[in-house]
Prior knowledge:
Layout: E1 6-8, E2 12-13, E3 16-17, H1 22-29, E4 34-39, E5 44-50, E6 55-60, E7 66-72, E8 78-79, E9 82-83, H2 89-98, E10 104-108, E11 114-118, E12 123-128, E13 131-138, E14 140-141, E15 147-148
Parallel strand pairs: 1-8
Antiparallel strand pairs: 1-2, 2-3, 4-5, 5-6, 6-7, 7-13, 8-9, 10-11, 11-12, 12-13, 14-15
Amino acid sequence: MNVNLEIKPMNGLGELSFGMVAEDVIKIAGPAEEIEKIDDDQVKTTIWHYWTKGLSLFFDEENNLKLSSIEVDNTNATIFGKSAFEMNESEITELMKSNGFNEIDAEEQEWGEKRVSFDDAMVDFYFEEDELVSINYSVFLNEFEIAVWPN
């Protein structure tokens, strides 16, 4: 798998686009190293883990198993042309604001990480001691919680 690691908020990662079906994802990313299924009362999700590439791809049943979220902890990932994992919280906040995203929410997580979310970009950044450790982001959800797929 040789996936471009350019994070595109609300759109995807490199050539991977939110809304792709599993067969199309495999053509780009190859087979997952591990497949996990979460099946509880609120959500039914299939997660494809690419551990050696620092990626996890989420396919939700409510979205007809289309690619709907991505988690990245690969330190080579970029966002808006900048190396994401070389930036601290204030630098990421400034980068997101300079790209038009201003709906910020921050919270200390019970497991010790700090989450900094940009709700208008559907992106969560997780920090440990001001060092970025992972990025979770998804397709845009409208006011009715319905996915708005990229073109």
